[in-house]
Amino acid sequence: MTEFRFPDNFLWGAATAAYQIEGAARDDGRGESIWDTFSRTPGKVHAGHTGDVACDHYHRYADDVAMMAELGLQAYRFSVSWPRIQPDGSGPVNPRGLDFYDRLTDALLGRGIDPIITLYHWDLPQTLQDQGGWTKRDTAEHFATYASAMYARLGDRVGTWTTLNEPWCSAYLGYGNGVHAPGVQDPGAAFSAVHHLLLAHGLAVQALRAGGAGRVGVTLNPADVRPADPNSAADAAAARLVDGLHNRIFLDPLLVGGYPDDVREHVARIVEPTFIEDGDEKIIAAPIDLLGINYYAPTYVAGRPDGAGGGGAYPGTEGAVQFLAPVGPLTDMGWMIEPAGLTRLLERIATDYPAVPLLITENGAAFPDKTADPTTPLQDSDRIAYLDGHLRAAHEAIARGVDLRGYLVWSLLDNFEWAEGYRKRFGIVHVDYLTQRRTPKSSARWYQEVISRNGL
Ligand code: FCB
């Protein structure tokens, strides 16, 4: 008996991103991205790892798609490397870059797997960064041109188009605290990046619609922000501020029609928001068909009027907000395991932004490998427990009325985990980076069962 059955047509799949798996960094006319530059800069990525080879998916995609089919995946979310399509981020498209995604799409469709495209998963063409990157309005316009080119090539076969992945990371980690590419540390730049990313989304939605796109969306990593002490007014104020900077700064312009007043006031204390032009908010609020949610862990905050807090990736919270150290159990990333946070988050979004269907576009966990022998399937029971807990949490949200359409596990393969390089493994399939051998872990077999039963 299935205990937790999911709705009919619930979509089961897996997600990856171009720079994290493709490799082939110099093949077929691909240009440089900010992650090429960043990963080659000493001290930025663990042990100097780069995405030059990664999982070599660019050459092994056919076998990888066959493996997805064998696991029973119904959908596959992948991202397109913008510098493969436009090596300099603008100007003529590179047909060999387009050809790769054409082959990948056909391989997926040939196996009955629904392709879900992410147009931007963090690999901005370096040439655009040299001109200011996401702090420049032009970048948003170039993005829309690139979106059109992708739609022109694949729109006849790809039904679901998402614009950005986690603009919070692109803006705050890329331009705020600098732990991600391009490694800029400038609070004003972070807010200008937020706005230009949202504008890029809006302009790309227009471009995709003009091409005829039916299902268009965006993926965020909204946070379940909790006050450390639910009875403390200072903690509640801190949670409200962080919620504004993490969630409402994206969700309100996308789904309500403009930035919330408290967020505008906060931003204006840090930078004069001359980058917000008349009409931008209307463009950003173009209707979407799908909101992608990436969830990993909750965020607990406390108010620190004594100035002891650390703002980290939240410009303007320095000395006012303390981000609590995660409390176990933790994943290998040091992230808290709290499935209830996913239920709370889904319910909150469905309540405050009711019009849009939701899709979990990422959820998963890094755990260290527990076998020395790469040919023996890894018994990753800790990952199974994580996924099982979060699927129950998603199921609970559906039972409470949330319109959740599907679940995509992060990730299909172990891969290049950004600043952590290859040392953190998120895959349900193990990758031996010396031989590129793929071995499904026990979590992959468990997930295969979940999909075939449509439940737990
Ligand atoms: C998300 C990213 C994804 C991966 C996971 C662990 O923030 O979108 O690429 O790194 O975290």
Automatic annotation (TrEMBL):
Q: Spell out the Gene3D superfamilies in the cross-references.
A: Glycosidases (3.20.20.80)
**According to the lineage, what is the superkingdom?**
Bacteria
| EC number(s) per entry | 3.2.1.21
Q: Which reaction(s) does the protein catalyse, per the Swiss-Prot or TrEMBL entry?
A: Hydrolysis of terminal, non-reducing beta-D-glucosyl residues with release of beta-D-glucose
Q: Does the keyword Acetylation apply?
A: no
**Which keywords annotate this record?**
Carbohydrate metabolism, Cellulose degradation, Glycosidase, Hydrolase, Polysaccharide degradation
Q: What SUPFAM superfamilies does its record include?
A: (Trans)glycosidases (SSF51445)
What residues make up the catalytic site?
E362 (nucleophile)
| A Pfam family that the UniProt record links to this protein | Glyco_hydro_1
Family to which this protein belongs:
Belongs to the glycosyl hydrolase 1 family.
Q: What is this protein called?
A: Beta-glucosidase
| Organism taxonomic ancestry | Bacteria, Bacillati, Actinomycetota, Actinomycetes, Micromonosporales
